[in-house]
Amino acid sequence: xxxxxxxxxxxxxxxxxxxxxxxxxxxxxxxxxxxxxxxxxxxxxxxxxxxxxxxxxxxxxxxxxxxxxxxxxxxxxxxxxxxxxxxxxxxxxxxxxxxxxxxxxxxxxxxxxxxxxxxxxxxxxxxxxxxxxxxxxxxxxxxxxxxxxxxxxxxxxxxxxxxxxxxxxxxxxxxxxxxxxxxxxxxxxxxxxxxxxxxxxxxxxxxxxxxxxxxxxxxxxxxxxxxxxxxxxxxxxxxxxxxxxxxxxxxxxxxxxxxxxxxxxxxxxxxxxxxxxxxxxxxxxxxxxxxxxxxxx
Length: 297
What we know:
This protein is an alpha/beta fold. The chain has 11 helices and 13 strands. The strands form 4 sheets. It has a 7-stranded parallel beta sheet, with helices on both faces. A two-stranded parallel ribbon has the order 7-10.
């Protein structure tokens, strides 16, 4: 039986992925820094990407490791994430892991990437340095209850009768429903045709952030929200504004907003050869996220 370690098992993506893998009949280890508190599916194991000894214990006997951790809420996230990726890749190789699966970020190679997207790209490289084949799924905004980017959108629409927003709202992105992310992750885990490949994933529509907010408002409120764009609103000011209006902390907000001036859309649809199937339209993903938020409330 294939053994899969899911890091970040209690997080936005991890807590949705573990039950799918268990249902598939895989032996799942749910890695968390507090295994005694874990009550989800799979076998809880203690582990911290900052502690090599804990990783050795967690990765022993593992066939596939799913890497879903980041330090976006830290001002020094680039250094910390790079060091953690090197450590994880090295220990995974020492333990005989056959595949690492990483959820990264979209963005053209020739673009001047933000620190957030640049870090995601660096983590891809660092994870592979140990020699284990890495499968990278690059995504833009993931739409689902509890996802940081979606929560920013939802809370802005919910809490503000009107908005003054910076010009980055006209940047194109390609949002994807969290259910599709899980389907793609499930499809590449243990799939040898995906070993060592970088695959782009996205929903069926390319939208600007402005269009995303207006469509979310239409679903949530039944109407559009008055939105005025201004030419200058720095990432620092934007992040303080978002932290004031939503429950997302300033550091995380700034690290995400820095990326919003970069177009992040799918340019290669090779993933459909490995994991076929239709993706969920944005407004349907919004409806699902809202319903899930009501259930969890």
